[in-house]
Amino acid sequence: MSKRAEKVFAGARIRELRSRTGQTQQALSEELGLSASYLNQIENDQRPIPAPLMAKLCTLFGVTEAWFGDSDEIRQIQALREILGDPLFRSATLRPTDLQAAVRAAPALANCFATLYHAYRATRNDGSPGLSHALTNEASEGPPMPSAGRPDVGMAVRSEPGAPPVAPYDAVGDWVQREDNYFDEIDRAAEDLYESPAFRDESLVIGLVRYLHDRHGIRVVTDPELDSRAVIWRFDRRRKLLLMADGVPSESSVFCMAQVIGRLDYARLLDRAVRRSGLTTTDARDLARVGMGNYFAGALLLPYRRFRQAAREKKHDLDQLQRLFGVSFEQVCHRLSTLQRPGEEGIPFYFIKTDIAGNILKSHSATRFSLPRFGGLCSLWNVFRAFSAPGQLHVQVSRTTDDAVFLNVARTVGHAGVSYFDRPRNVAVVLGCSVAHAPELVYAAGLDLSDERMIIPIGPGCRACIRTDCRHRAIPASGFQIDAGGEERGVVPYHMAPAPG
Description:
Keywords: DNA-binding, Transcription, Transcription regulation. By secondary structure, the chain is of the alpha+beta class. Among the domains are: 11-68, lambda repressor-like DNA-binding domains (434 Repressor (Amino-terminal Domain)); 167-345, no CATH class. It is 41% helix and 12% strand. It has 18 helices and eleven strands. A six-stranded mixed beta sheet has the order 5-4-8-7-6-9, with helices on both faces. Strands 1-3-2 form a three-stranded mixed beta sheet. It has a two-stranded antiparallel ribbon with strand order 10-11. Helix 5 (71-84) packs across helix 6, helix 6 packs across helix 7 and helix 9 (168-178) packs across helix 14. The longest helix has 20 residues, at 282-301.
């Protein structure tokens, strides 16, 4: 499959860099060896950024090419499309090109609009105080803390407890996304511990058990009562016991032990990451601490350099990596999505965990792939096929509405029920990357990537999807006219056409 050269329009991002350093357009053009008029055209998205100029800008401002990528722009456009699908905006008939122009010209304003809509949904759905009260509290708090090295795209809103414009779970997810799901200090600390004498020349599970006992006097024991209360493990500090439910798989037990080690020996490091997040509600900070503990555990079980090297050698064969490191399928997939260490990056993956109803339980994207925030998932996605064949790996080549092509794999995870009356949790994970990385993945074997029939057209969810000919559509898309008349009837009982300009 030939890869088309992509034109990068990122005028707003260049203006952001200039504003940080206080440079005028004239001064920057002279430093880059350009005419002021040419730079002005680039900043107004009348011309794309040429590759040589991109390299100069990266060197001059100390950023990577990812800064100028359009992943954030695509996420913003999709968010706006979903928002405008709300009946509140039923009179709005903005075209896709209108949204793209708005995001490119004023990304901060588009983000403010999304923030306002988040506040509206929170007060409408959660029974919180009125919207004006929530926004007044927000204004008195001051602006959100900017993220390090990125524009405030998808910035979670700060709020007082009791009137959160953004749910804590979403706020934490936005923060992790802004950090590219990579936390350098935590990652390196876990890797250093793995490489220390404490874990040398023996299996990881034995090393974890011995570390907890020798350093903290903690014993790991089985408690058959935990399972009846749907508890996997419990840490009894007073008795210095780490209690495990009966029948917990080994990969879950090592993850639990790694979490406890992080909590005991690296609490300050984990708390420092949370303090830097800008999250202000107690619930959000508590969720973030849990997330950082999980991150430490994953980084300890799958140390960065060893795991990245093994992933390359095994061509990212998930089953082989799972057996090699003695972890779960989900843990391998999630760890692959975190390999964003500067200068030692792995393949940029997106990772999603969802239940059988399509509820997104966990997600992150290091690519331009973007998930819906307010609607459901596309029914053409292979994650739904995974639920019909539990335990089997499903490979899919898909094309999104912005013509990006991805190779992804999906599989159910979790455990079978322990009795007839048990109701095991049905969840699945999806791991995907740009098809440009297909030669580095074992899952491309046997696929004819030049055959367009192999590519499944998927969307971001019906509210934001611009495909007008999809027979799987559940609801109309925003920004389109609906024609329910005529002398013909398809699978979908109406036709859609772009709104007139």
